[in-house]
Amino acid sequence: MIASVDGCKGGWVVAVADGWPCKTPPRLMFSASFATVVSDTRTCHAVVVDMPIGLPSGPPADDGQRGCDGLARQYLGLLGRDRVFLAPPRPTLVAKTPAEFQSIHKSLLTKGAGLPVWGIAGKLAEVDALMSPTIQDRVFEFHPELAWARLAGHTLSSKHCAAGIIERLGILRGPVPKLEQLNEWDDSTVSGRAEIDDILDALVGLAVAGGIVESPRSACRLPVTEPPKDARGLRMEIWY
Q1: Contact at 8 Å (CB) between 170 and 208?
Q2: Cα pseudo-dihedral 137, 173, 6, 62, rounded to 10
Q3: Cβ(91)–Cβ(104) below 8 Å
Q4: What are the φ and ψ backbone dihedral angles of 78, each rounded to 5 degrees?
Q5: C-alpha distance across the termini of the chain, in Å
Q6: How far apart are CA 146 and CA 76, in angstroms?
Q7: Beta carbons of 108 and 88 less than 8 angstroms apart
Q8: Rounded Cα–Cα distance for residues 101 and 95 (Å)
Q9: How far is CA 220 from CA 203, 207, 215, 227, in A?
Q10: CA–CA separation, 89 and 113 (whole Å)
Q11: 218: CB partners within 8 A, 6+ apart
């Protein structure tokens, strides 16, 4: 079994499948906490989550940015580079307000974080508090925009427009059985919490998890070479 996780309103949407391509329709469920996600997917051989794992410390320990984020931006090109947020240094995660978050970020890197980064800070802190090198052997970071681009052969339109949603549905229609009945086979707890783009991002992550299980040595990862580790021994890498 494999699983893929994407953040959504009030928690996480989780897709669980028997492999990739899926032999049967994946199961969708909602989890209020990342700890519950890890527990509920404990029988899965690989779990991917759309959230940074392995964080910079900020100067002088490093340059304050992860190399994999820069590589991901290069991969997506001008059309999609802004869809990759630069993971903030770990010390920023103690912030209680956007102003405090930006203040700490500026003190470490002499510049503020992109405005959307504060929006994921809570979930980022939740994941970071739970992760360990041992858990990272089963729970991996992925980025859905990279996965979509790999499967399509090019960077897709924005997932926030109709054209982008249609493109993504077209990519999943082959490997995900009964995709047109999506609203019938998702867990009722997902309804009203996860938007369609959250669900589609969770589903495309199954392609990444499936690749990791099938052939970890040849699965797609940035960087291609052995990734650096952060101060807690977590690999700073993005699978796709």
Answers
A1: no
A2: 60
A3: yes
A4: -60, -35
A5: 18
A6: 7
A7: no
A8: 5
A9: 17, 11, 10, 13
A10: 10
A11: none
With a CB cutoff of 8 Å and minimum separation 6, the contacts of 235 are: 53, 54, 133, 136, 227, 228, 229
What pTM value is reported for the model? 0.94
Measuring CA to CA, which residue among 21, 50, 24, 49 is closest to residue 171?
A: 21
Pairing of strands 2-8, 46-49: parallel
Average pLDDT of the residues in 17-45: 96
Among 5, 43, 32, 1, which Cα is nearest to 239's?
5
| Model confidence band, residue 199 (pLDDT cutoffs 50, 70, 90) | very high
Residue 190's pLDDT is 79
Cβ contact 133:53 at 8 Å: no
Helices (H), the chain: 34-40, 67-80, 98-109, 115-130, 144-152, 162-172, 182-185, 196-214
Amino acid at 13: V
Asked if 46 and 138 count as a contact pair (C-beta separation under 8 A), the reply is: yes
Half-sphere exposure of 178 (CA within 13 A, CB side): 11
One-letter amino acid at 139 equals V
Secondary structure percentages of the chain, helix, strand, coil, to 5: 45, 15, 40
Phi and psi, residue 221, nearest 5°:
-150, 145
